[in-house]
Write a structure and sequence with these properties.
heterodimer; A: alpha+beta; 4-stranded mixed β-sheet; 11 helices; 7% strand; B: 4-stranded mixed β-sheet; 4 strands
């Protein structure tokens, strides 16, 4: 059960989870050493996970000195507050912080991988809701691009909270494009350019999954859940 | 200085999300202008201030809008840090408070809405989630005075608007709050002794009346 040392940082995660990747990027930005523990999302959940996140039983969970923190954006804020001396992830000014939290919350609600929502219709190649889902998705990308504008990152010159909330989905772009039948580069070129800039950061480059492996994973999910 | 800038809250009296903002502002003893919005006919100011969601509440401070109730409450806490802290000082306490406030959003108010919007046959799943949510919150509260311990704070603010809506949820969800969540009912009464809460929550009978009217108007009967 509690085979982890009560001191130190442990991250319960799943390799392709964009939510877990947010946490990994934040820890890397801060230079925090931690133990990564892979949970099998397609198999049985470990006793440690069930004990650490009894409410949702989901990854990621950050266990710090034996105490669990759940929900990826809360974990990122916790990391920022616990290790404040390096690479601040949220701005100092209250209004700018509120702005960052708003957009991170928007991304959390509107940009989801397929296994997070059973009824995510975009993943079906055809069917009634498909074009409506596609339209909704392109609307969301355009809104995000509007918010980014010509800035280097969402908050300006400094890589931060909103970038971390969104960037794990960049390795899902190839999968989205293939299922939805559009080019994200054509649709929202600024967003794609921002994604590339983020990938120049070591914390992001070492964390994001290979887009083809993501695509393969979705194929496995579709077979598993009989989605055609 | 936070105080010298104009502060406006765009709200709708019945919104539990708006109530959270009012309570936070009252706890901080901050003066502001309350603008009641007609959600059927949204004002240009609302549409301009919250173009993404077009929803209340919106706090406009010195012309700059803040949206989403829990983001607003945190903003109020950070913009007026010198009084009535709403979140704990330590990072772990803050993470816990944010976790439970988020839980309240998902499992209480989102589910609660389904209880009165859906027809009886469709309610089953929502009711189960809602009552389970109440139990989990009761466990989390335990024997404490408030969710944060002795000090009224973020999770209390996130949840207490439930006291204005309990009667409505009970009626359409067919359950009794006193039976399902007696500790929460007692906690709610303690919160209502605070001026900030008492002045921010509407009469539950009026909330119920409005929801009955909406259900009739939208053929949900």
């Amino acid at each position: 059960m509690g085979e982890v040392d009560t001191k130190g940082v442990v991250l319960l995660d799943f390799w392709v989870s964009p939510f877990g990747q947010r946490c990994r990027i934040a820890l890397a930005e801060k230079g925090v050493e931690y133990e990564y523990r892979e949970e099998n999302l397609l198999g049985d959940k470990s006793p440690l996970l069930l004990e650490s996140n009894p409410v949702y039983k989901k990854v990621p969970v950050l266990i710090h000195d034996g105490k669990p923190v759940c929900e990826s954006l809360l974990i990122v804020q916790y990391i920022d507050e616990w290790w404040p001396h390096r690479a601040p992830l949220l701005p100092a000014d209250p209004y700018a912080r509120a702005h960052a939290r708003f957009w991170a919350d928007f991304i959390d609600k509107k940009v989801r991988p397929p296994y997070a929502d059973a009824s995510y219709v975009l993943w079906k190649l055809k069917g009634e809701g498909h074009s409506a889902a596609k339209e909704e998705f392109t609307g969301i990308l355009k809104l995000l691009e509007g918010e980014l504008g010509d800035k280097k990152y969402f908050a300006g010159d400094a890589f931060g909270f909103v970038d971390i909330a969104l960037v794990p989905f960049v390795c899902w772009f190839y999968t989205y494009e293939t299922y939805a039948g559009f080019s994200i580069e054509e649709l929202t070129p600024k967003l794609v350019a921002w994604g590339k800039r983020c990938m120049e950061r070591e914390s992001v480059a070492k964390t994001l999954s290979d887009p083809h492996k993501v695509f393969e994973f979705v194929g496995v999910l579709k077979k598993r859940f009989g989605v055609e | 200085m936070a105080e010298t800038k104009e502060l406006v809250l765009l709200n709708c009296w019945v919104s539990p999300y708006g109530m959270r903002c009012r309570i936070a502002l009252a706890e901080k003893r901050v003066e502001y202008e309350h603008k009641e919005e007609n959600v059927m006919e949204k004002s240009p100011l609302l549409l301009q201030s919250n173009p993404v969601h077009k929803k209340i509440p919106v706090l406009v401070h010195g012309g700059k809008p803040v949206c989403e109730s829990l983001v607003i409450v945190q903003y109020v806490d950070e913009a007026w840090p010198d009084r009535a802290p709403l979140l704990p000082v330590d990072a772990y306490g803050r993470a816990q408070a944010r976790f439970w406030a988020d839980f309240v959003d998902k499992k209480i108010f989102e589910c609660g809405t389904k209880l009165w919007k859906l027809k009886k046959e469709a309610q089953g799943e929502a009711k189960k989630e809602f009552t389970e949510g109440l139990k989990l919150l009761e466990d989390e509260l335990g024997e404490k005075k408030y969710f944060g311990g002795d000090a009224f704070g973020f999770v209390d603010i996130a949840l207490v608007p439930l006291m204005a809506w309990f009667r409505t949820y009970e009626s359409f969800g067919s359950f009794s709050a006193e039976t399902e969540a007696p500790k929460l009912v007692a906690w709610g009464k303690r919160c209502m002794e605070r001026e900030s809460v008492a002045m921010s929550l509407p009469d539950p009978a009026k909330v119920y009346e409005l929801v009955c009217y909406i259900r009739k108007a939208f053929g949900l009967e």
